[in-house]
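Recap for those who missed Tuesday's class. We walked through two folding examples back to back. For each one, the amino acid string is listed first and its predicted structure tokens come directly after. Nothing is annotated here on purpose, so try labeling regions yourself before you check the end of the notes.
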Amino acid sequence: MSDNKVVEWKELLKRRLAASKKDGKTEQEKKEEEINLFTKHYLEWRGGGKRDFSYKNIPRFYYRLPAEDEVLLQKLREESRAVFLQRKSRELLDNEELQNLWFLLDKHQTPPMIGEEAMINYDSFLKVGEKAGVKCKQFFTARVYAKLLHSDPYGRISIMQFFNYVMRKVWLHQTRIGLSLYDVAGQGYLRESDLENYILELIPTLPQLDGLEKSFYSFYVCTAVRKFFFFLDPLRTGKIKIQDILACSFLDDLLELRDEELSKESQESNWFSAPSALRVYGQYLNLDKDHNGMLSKEELSRYGTGTLTNVFLDRVYQECLTYDGEMDYKTYLDFVLALENRKEPAALQYIFKLLDMENKGYLNVFALNYFFRAIQEQMKLHGQEPVSFQDVKDEIFDMVKPKDPYKITLQDLVNSSQGDTVSSILIDLNGFWTYENREVLVASDNDSSVDLDDT
């Protein structure tokens, strides 16, 4: 700050103060005026004559959701979201535009072909991008081309691979928009009721579910929704991110039911197929001997091969949600999903929580012995010679190789890829017997294959 400016500023302040002495103001008022005057001139000097309003350039990052009684605001928000989603939908390629893209790609293919696969080089790729229209612009970039470039000696990419990439992207965006229509809160996630509505309205579009009775729809929807929530909501928050739904394969499995020619094997392995849903619900009805719509511990003990230990079943009824000591269909579905998918981290988390009786976050020798003793008792009941716990314990620790040699954590089980075997040894006599006789079973399988080859 130059000396001239300092003098100027001081003189101005003195004149203002001298003028203020003649107006008959109190000392307090004069002091406040002095402070305000100083602040004004100081800020003008700091900002070159302008006050600093840079804080106004910070973007707004929080928008309060309308309260339940703010009906007008809620309606406005719903309408604006619907308009936004419609606009996004119009930005996607429709069937006619996709067909036109295929014709352009085919027309600009670059010889020679690799087998029956048509290829395209980068120059032709860019030419197609110019002719394909604005909607396709996002796909015709160097990054996309590089992603699909593999080992072609001429530096070309497969037309079919590129077209499938575009189709997949369009499908993902369509599906995201479709799911977002059911996102009542507009926060990027679906609650259980939202996903139920989505699947219920999807049923008529899936030819493989044509044979389902309408009276079974509610049970089918419950069966389908549980798989999403069991695996994608491990903390049981009651909601799933739409991004997580798109990233997993479950939606692919569900929409696979659009295929009218789906093989019997594919239907049996698909949790969402009619035969699979009827199988699970049929098992539940068969277990429910007193037909009260719920399962007691005794009824559940007949699940599968009927060889789950009483100790494990006790833990199921202690930890899982029950009603007067009985299990409903939704809780049963979680139980089935855990036992049928023991290799998956979410299933291991479910089983680990039951095995971790003291809620310590790890399994020690005491916990292993507690559960294995029930296996030994079952072996005695079936006239088998009980196996030494010491031997089994050593085998379990050798399989898992935990970080702490005395404790097995859930992460240890997941990392070892042996969680399914360990859980089977501890909770199911049949699972333990299969493990104990694995070498004999492998040998008999080999013998069977040799016999088949001989014939």
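Example two. Treat it independently of the first, because the proteins are unrelated.
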Amino acid sequence: MSRRVVRQSKFRHVFGQPVKADQMYEDIRVSKVTWDSSFCAVNPKFLAIIVESGGGGAFMVLPLAKTGRVDKNHPLVTGHTAPVLDIDWCPHNDNVIASASEDTTVMVWQIPDYIPVRNITEPVVTLEGHSKRVGIISWHPTARNVLLSAGCDNLVILWNVGTGEMLLVLEDMHTDLIYNVGWNRNGSLLVTTCKDKKVRVIDPRKQQIVAERFAPHEGLRPVRAIFTKEGHIFTTGFTRMSQRELGLWDPNNFEEPIALQEMDTSNGVLLPFYDPDSSIVYLCGKGDSSIRYFEITDEAPYVHYLNTYSSKEPQRGMGFMPKRGLEVSKCEIARFFKLHERKCEPIVMTVPRKSDLFQDDLYPDTPGPEPALEADEWLSGKDAEPILISLRDGYVPIKNRELKVVKKNILDNKPPPGPRRSHSTCNSDFSPALEEVLEEIRALKEMVQAQEKRICDLENKLCQFTNGTD
């Protein structure tokens, strides 16, 4: 009886292909900042890339369909006074993006569906709480408006973007520079890696370290860690001999790895991109010209090498499309946006299938754009799994939803100053005046909104006119 040598997997023949030249994004001056972030963020509507800019920091936002050569005067998002280090699209609103910068601030931006004529310079909200540069930001996977930032002051801060307030500050947990932070599937736990060589699993609401492991990889270079959907932790790092290595760990038993594999000798830090629907992890090294991918299963050796996508040019950064932005009719299971020095090249990962029908096994229900919790519910201790959607009929992005920031007024919590008066006299004195003021505010708001709409219409007409004359 012959023993089966080849492991059966529907992802064994996944292959990567770059798109045609006319579907790339050309003439983009990608940032040269030395920082181990991906420099690129993408969602079903937009592609955002951190770019070089004089006097401050900026990133560019392009509608996905706007391929080809980018106009050198294309508007940028410019509000930071120092280089931008990280950007992240909100998973619950495709028009909202957050940016972190060397200027110690985090800014949240509303991106219009049309291409603006001028640079976007006014964020919806600026979050100030770090004392040193901020290099990492990450939105909560299931709670609305919860944003995480980690800075070189060794702090992790959680914000409620809807009110512009700090929710939690995780201090005295990291003794050195934080390399990366990742949420688990429902956003109840964080995993962090740090220059002090420790990987920590943190419960942010209890503000305590649930589990930690010193030196999962023995080398001195940065380690990266992400959660898998089963709650295990996947890490990339270096051996003592500077070989790149990957590991799979159970945080309930952190001493022994589930799997540990050496890979190659190269000094680029491996950025892991994980797809929980297929349990595939893609490893992209900065400065590498390849993407390796592995399937994580519950049978030995647990992390199974699938294949490598190779190209000639090294990557400066990498964007990873959420599942709802893929073309299901073409059996596309992942799409990367590879940054070169002057362009961005989409790379499509496909499972070869003969049938044109929807492939249920490739596309289980996947997290959609609706949050499962409000920020206050999550903070009070509630957890919820992501709200899933079917991709059977493809995904149509939702129209522009405005992010409203309501800053809490500290005066609401205090009694008015001055001598105490009876409740009835207060009401009788102030009610008519208050009503008048509120009426005036309403009228002003309506006027501002009408003017904003008029400006938008004019900008759209101007865009159409300039496009027509081109």
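Answers for example two:
The helical segments are 375-379, 423-469.
The first strand starts at residue 15 and ends at 18.
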